[in-house]
Amino acid sequence: MLRSLSLFVSGGTRNYASGSAKPKRFPHGGKYPRPKPRTAERPPYRAPDPLLNNPNAAVTELTSKLTFIHRPPPTAPSPLSLTTNPVSPLLRPPTTPKNEALPPAVRKAVERPRASEETMAEIKRLRGLDPERYTSGVLARKFNVTRGFVQAIAALKKSQRKKKRAAQEAIAVAAREKWSEKHSMTMAIRAKRRELW
């Protein structure tokens, strides 16, 4: 049963018939309930006035509604700063480099000797003789050249390239068959996303 609260007003004072002197307040001490979470709005940000209480700012009242404020720039030139000898190191002319030893190189460049005509002819012969055995990496290590150099002077025929690409694809398919279901789904999503680039 709900207990009714009746209010009597007499002589400018309030009398409650229930016996309580004041209406019930909320736990946080307020008269009204707090707003629900995520419904209150944050007050707008008010940036402080940089000219307020600034000792370097000169304030001049021109009229009743107009005020002129002059503040020198924070990087005012110093009387000791000259054009030939500025105080700021950013305005000074670049110093002449000293004749000192440079630090050692992080990565040393590999100097390879220039391949002769006989070397290039031998690379072409071996590459055409057995491409499966004499791959570009094997020939590059044997003749001290780069793999790109071998692929440039002794490129495979179109039929051989197709055959090699098919063999590499078969190896890739065998590796993909060992993927888990989660990994397969992740790679399919990545491929689909790449199509939409």
Automatic annotation (TrEMBL):
Residues 22-37 have a biased composition (Basic residues). Keywords: Ribonucleoprotein, Ribosomal protein. One of its GO terms (cellular component) is mitochondrial large ribosomal subunit. Pfam families: MRP-L20 (PF12824). The keyword Ribosomal protein applies. Residues 1-56, 94-116 are annotated as: Disordered. GO terms for molecular function: structural constituent of ribosome. InterPro entries: Ribosomal_mL58 (IPR024388). It comes from the Eukaryota. This is 60s ribosomal protein l20.
